[in-house]
Design brief:
The complex is a heterodimer.
Chain A: H1 8-16, H2 18-37, H3 43-52, H4 55-66, H5 71-82, H6 85-92, H7 100-107, H8 112-117, H9 127-151, H10 166-179, H11 183-199, H12 207-212
Helix pairs in contact in A: 1-9, 2-4, 2-9, 3-9, 4-5
Chain B: H1 2-26, H2 33-39, H3 42-56, E1 57-58, E2 61-62, H4 66-79, H5 84-101
Antiparallel strand pairs in B: 1-2
Helix pairs in contact in B: 4-5
The chains are: A mainly alpha, B mainly alpha.
């Protein structure tokens, strides 16, 4: 398709995402164990991770169905959690390539960590870096789910390893990068965090995060 | 079991559609400057919201537990310019310890 050096930007993204991929692997194991304990068997959790590739939404589905909820409630919870990928997809859209079908495929590479890692400031994104960063995370998620689903209770609950802070801690690192040198970004982050926290007790999971995007409208005001 | 499979397929389709929407609708067009200045601030907004909800949120409640201690340690490590992996490892270790002894 292209010269070997054409792969370099993808590999750079893949390398940058290795720590996230390791975290994703372990959280995938956690999902596999949980799904197995809910009586989903081995195949369903793995298929779910392959075709949906969406950690937070899959955990939400497990929580709703596990608590005796129906399909509609589970699907709704997942859609709300994934709604943030809408604005994120708009943000990267100008940097993707090809006709609509190919763009739709490339848009599947949008996951939180890859999207944030590929952000180059000023609303610019690095397409190759983002796609490269998503591959190891996808592999980690699917393999993790398989390991968890196959071993089930044998492994026990990986939560006790302090894993639930891995993602917020990583996101804090990426946030610090975004805030560097931009007072406006700091203001937006503070407003977004306050909005999200205020909504947690009242809104279903996922809504606080998508509502916090409103803080970015501060960008409509003149340059500071 | 049918409920499970219906849910799995529907969630996969919905996720794919949400992720495809922006790239397909916007296409390769450059966004207007005002939209770009909003998008430039999406990353800090989303990341800040993810940090606080994943640290303090639990089943539609705000709770202060071992996760908050872990993320606070991560913030401290960042301020001291610790490497990224060390920062995250310290956060996880602190949370695991606090969870065990807390």
């Amino acid at each position: 398709m292209s010269r070997p050096s054409g792969l370099d930007p993808y590999l750079a993204g893949a390398r940058a995402s290795v720590p996230f991929a390791l975290a994703t692997l372990v959280i995938g194991i956690s999902f596999g164990v949980l799904a197995r304990s809910l009586g989903w068997g081995i195949v369903a959790p793995i298929v779910f991770s392959v075709i949906a590739f969406s950690g937070s939404a899959q955990f939400a589905v497990a929580a709703v169905l596990g608590a005796g909820g129906g399909a509609v409630a589970a699907i709704l919870a997942a859609v709300l959690l994934n709604a943030r990928f809408g604005p994120m997809g708009v943000a990267v859209a100008p940097y993707l390539k090809g006709r609509p079908f190919r763009r739709a495929l490339e848009g599947q590479a949008v996951v939180d960590a890859s999207w944030a890692l590929a952000s180059r400031g000023g609303g610019r994104f690095d397409r190759e870096f983002m796609i490269g960063a998503t591959v190891p995370q996808g592999v980690g998620w699917i393999f993790g789910t398989a390991i968890g689903a196959v071993s089930g209770d044998f492994i026990g609950d990986p939560e006790r390893l302090g894993l639930d802070v891995i993602f917020p801690a990583f996101f804090l690192v990426l946030l610090a990068e975004e805030l560097r040198g931009s007072r406006r970004a700091v203001a937006v982050a503070l407003i977004a965090a306050s909005l999200a926290l205020a909504l947690v007790p009242f809104a279903p999971a996922g809504v606080p995060v998508i509502a916090a995007c409103v803080a970015a409208l501060l960008g409509l005001r003149g340059q500071s | 079991m049918t409920t499970l499979w219906v849910t799995i397929v529907a969630v996969a389709l919905a996720s794919a559609a949400i992720k495809a929407a922006g790239p397909v609708l916007v296409g390769g067009r450059d966004l207007p400057p005002r939209a770009v200045s909003v998008i430039a601030l999406l990353a800090p907004a989303l990341l800040a919201a993810l940090v606080v909800t994943e640290t303090l949120g639990k089943d539609q409640h705000l709770v202060l537990d071992e996760r908050a201690i872990g993320v606070a340690v991560a913030g401290l490590a960042l301020a001291l310019r610790a490497p990224v992996l060390l920062t995250v490892a310290l956060a996880a270790a602190t949370t695991a310890l606090a969870g065990t002894f807390g």
